[in-house]
Amino acid sequence: MKKSKFNDSQIMSILKQASAGLGVSEICRTHDISSATFYKWRSKYSGMDLPMITKLKELELENSRLKKSLEFHDAVFFHLYQKYEVYSIYRPSHFKIAYSTLCTLYCAL
User: Fold this and answer.
1) Are both 43 and 5 inside the same structural domain?
2) Which of 19, 59, 76, 106 reaches 20 to 30 Å from 37, CA-CA?
3) pLDDT tens digits, 62-79
4) Residue 1 placed within a domain
5) Cα separation of the two ends of the chain
């Protein structure tokens, strides 16, 4: 993902200029941004102040980190599932045994 050349406080000041009455085309021309970028910022950050934007970005970063971790754990689980041929996992009576076996093998890695 490309890093923005505007930080949070600059985005807030641009949005405040628009709420103060300046035209969108003039603001976009002044700050060298597209109108699509401006409207995307306005839809995403409208009604927020600077600490809320910072918190939102932190949560988005944590969310992406957790998604990557989940993908890794799913891949390892699938690999162990195939390697040790735990085909009885779909039977409810064997599910706990198979899952605990796979978890034990995963923790041993």
Assistant:
1) yes
2) 59
3) 999 999 888 887 777 777
4) yes
5) 32
In a domain, residue 79? The reply is yes
- pLDDT, position 4: 77
Task: Decide: pTM greater than 0.90.
Answer: no
**Nearby residues of 54 by Cβ (< 8 Å), 6 or more positions away:** 8
Q: Mean of the per-residue pLDDT values for the chain? A: 80
Tokens of 74: 């799913």
- 61 is a domain residue: no
The domain of 101 spans 66-109
CB-based contact 81:89 (threshold 8 Å): yes
Count how many Cα atoms sit within 13 Å of the Cα of residue 67 in the half-sphere of its side chain. 6
Helix 8-20 and helix 35-45, axial crossing angle in degrees, nearest 10: 100
The 3-class secondary structure across 87-101, one letter per residue, is HHHHCHHHHHHHHHH
Count: domains in the chain:
2
